[in-house]
Design brief:
By secondary structure, the protein is α/β, with parallel strands linked by helices. The chain has helices at residues 3-13, 26-33, 49-62, 91-97, 100-116, 147-163, 194-199, 202-210, 236-246, 261-279, 293-309, 314-357, 369-378, 418-424, 435-438, 445-450, 468-480, 508-519; strands at 15-17, 38-41, 67-70, 121-122, 169-173, 215-218, 252-254, 284-286, 380-383, 397-402, 429-434, 457-461, 485-488, 499-502, 529-530. The strands form four sheets. A seven-stranded mixed β-sheet has the order 11-10-12-13-14-9-15. The chain is globular.
């Protein structure tokens, strides 16, 4: 058959569209029968592991080799546990512990759960070095701000995930950590020299490749040191020249959401798709916002037209399709090989980890026992002479300050300390404030203090250093209540309060771990540590 006769099938093979619903829509099933190479699952597609397993079985009944991908970072960004919050700690928390074996164990535990549900590609781990603490989109999604620490845990996460037969995907190449702009909305610029980029941004990606990462996700980033004109997703110099030829990566290159404004605003959906493939991308992720058949048709037809016009070389499309099929074949082989020992290994690891940290297993909690135990190791407590003793005496009042969440994290995932603390200390009350509630007030501390009375006061924040309205409110509250406990569930740049508890993320597991410390549930070190002078 000629290339022109095959074109629609080849074009469909490089797409990874999203869709709505918890069962496979008719259009997705038709497309799978006509060569669609992959799909991307989002929180809207997930009700339970059993339901996802049924969904992926539907997909494979149409195409046994389909790649089923999900953006599951097992942290603040979670799709598989979006209804409850992740029962694992997330990257920054794992970086704070800095135990690569623990990171590998958590990732292997995650990989088994995803594999059991029929998922074969995870758009994780985040390999960015969060060197800018004001970064609006990465933050706790990164393992940290030091490139070699990030590299250690990126490679460990990939080893763990892939040992369960789920392909790991290091993102966002060549590094989204030193940005002040969210690429969902605009094009971030990484204004560093080649030497600086090599010493920081590229270190974790080199480690990911050395660890055998099966996939790399591109970032919609402008990096003038390598390409002053095109964002990385569309840059032959960055994808083919740097990632393929200089770094030696031979796996699948997949885009971040092609509908994001970092590439779409200038080039459009179709233009960005064609340029990405021509630059060296193998798979197009789409459907976070455009989860419909018409979008898939537009992209498929644009690819077909580009090959026919010569804008996209035939050989480049065939190479992309070959890499998609190679990844699908790898996941099938590896999941079969690892499945037989998965249950015994998982049980053994959970017992070892729980014994190591001195906590009972998390059987009574929905989710990962390994994840809850790992989260407890990540929490850090500091205090002042004015701070209260832990655990608290009496029933606390919890005030949670809710800054706007970026698109990657989403708005549907619950977070905080109020709910788990109420489970442990019945009678606990909680209230949540957003910027619009407090920012206009002359004294924003007044409504915060009003609900507390003389009870222990717990103030829960996320990235307080990035939100002036929270900083201002905290200053007023702490002036009146220097004994208040501050729980920072973002990056702990600002340490304040009578007691400061840094969870290094806002997952359900980390919220539970902080609540256990406050309530005094089997805490190995109940007393806060003094702040260094």
């Amino acid at each position: 058959m000629s290339i022109h006769g095959e074109l629609p099938e080849l074009a469909a093979a490089v797409l990874q569209p999203g869709f709505t619903g918890t069962t496979a829509p008719d259009w997705v099933r038709r497309w799978l029968g006509a060569g669609l190479g992959g799909v991307a699952l989002f929180a809207r597609n997930v009700e339970s592991p059993t339901q996802v397993a049924a969904l992926t079985a539907q997909l494979r009944s149409e195409n046994p080799d389909v790649i089923v991908a999900i953006d599951e970072e097992a942290g603040d960004v979670t799709r598989f546990e979006s209804r409850h919050g992740s029962s694992r700690p997330g990257n920054l928390a794992l970086g704070a512990v800095d135990d690569a074996e623990l990171t590998e164990m958590v990732a292997r535990d995650l990989g088994r759960e995803l594999a059991d549900a029929g998922i074969t590609l995870d758009y994780a781990p985040d390999a960015d070095v969060n060197s800018n603490p004001g970064n609006p989109v990465i933050g706790v999604r990164a393992f940290g701000a030091e490139p070699h620490l990030v590299a250690r845990h990126t490679s460990a996460f990939i080893r763990g995930l892939q040992s369960a037969g789920v392909a790991g995907c290091a993102k966002h190449f060549p590094g989204h950590g030193d940005t002040a702009v969210d690429s969902h909305h605009d094009v971030p610029v990484i204004d560093r020299s080649e030497a600086e980029l090599a010493a920081c941004e590229l270190v974790p990606f080199r480690a990911a490749i050395a660890a055998g990462a099966r996939a790399v996700m591109t970032g919609h980033l402008l990096v003038p040191a390598w390409d002053p004109e095109l964002p990385a997703t569309l840059s032959p110099r960055i994808l083919t020249g740097l990632l393929r030829e200089e770094l030696g990566f031979d796996g699948l290159i997949v885009t971040d959401g092609i509908e994001m404004q970092g590439v779409r605003r200038r080039f459009g959906l179709e233009g960005a798709t064609v340029r990405a493939l021509a630059a060296g991308v193998d798979a197009i992720c789409v459907g976070g916002d455009h989860a419909d058949e018409q979008t898939a048709i537009r992209l498929r037809d644009a690819i077909v037209a580009a090959v026919r016009s010569g804008e996209l070389p035939e050989a480049r499309l065939r190479d992309a399709v070959a890499r998609v099929r190679a990844l699908a074949a790898w996941t099938t082989r590896t999941q079969v090989a690892t499945g037989a020992r998965a249950i015994a290994d998982a049980a053994a690891e959970a017992l070892v980890l729980d014994a190591t940290v001195g906590f009972p297993a998390a059987d009574a909690l929905l989710g990962s026992a390994v994840g809850f135990a790992a989260a407890r190791r990540a929490v850090r407590v500091t205090g002042t002479d004015a701070g209260p003793a832990l655990p608290v005496s009496g029933v606390p009042h919890v005030v949670e300050f809710a800054p706007p969440r970026n698109i990657a994290i989403g708005s549907e995932t619950p977070w905080g300390v109020g709910d788990p603390l109420a489970e442990l200390l019945p009678g606990t009350t909680a209230v949540r404030f957003e910027a619009e509630d407090l920012e206009p007030l002359a004294d924003p501390s007044a409504p915060v203090l009003a609900g507390a009375g003389e009870r222990p006061l717990v103030l829960v924040v996320r990235d307080v250093h990035r939100h002036p309205w929270i900083e201002r409110t905290l200053a007023g509250v702490l002036a009146a209540r220097p004994d208040a406990i501050v729980v920072e569930m973002g990056i702990p740049v600002t340490v304040t309060g009578g007691v400061h508890i840094a969870t290094h993320g806002a997952t359900r597991a980390l919220g539970r771990a902080a609540a256990e410390i406050i309530a005094g549930v089997d805490v190995p070190e109940p007393a806060p540590q003094p702040v260094a002078a």
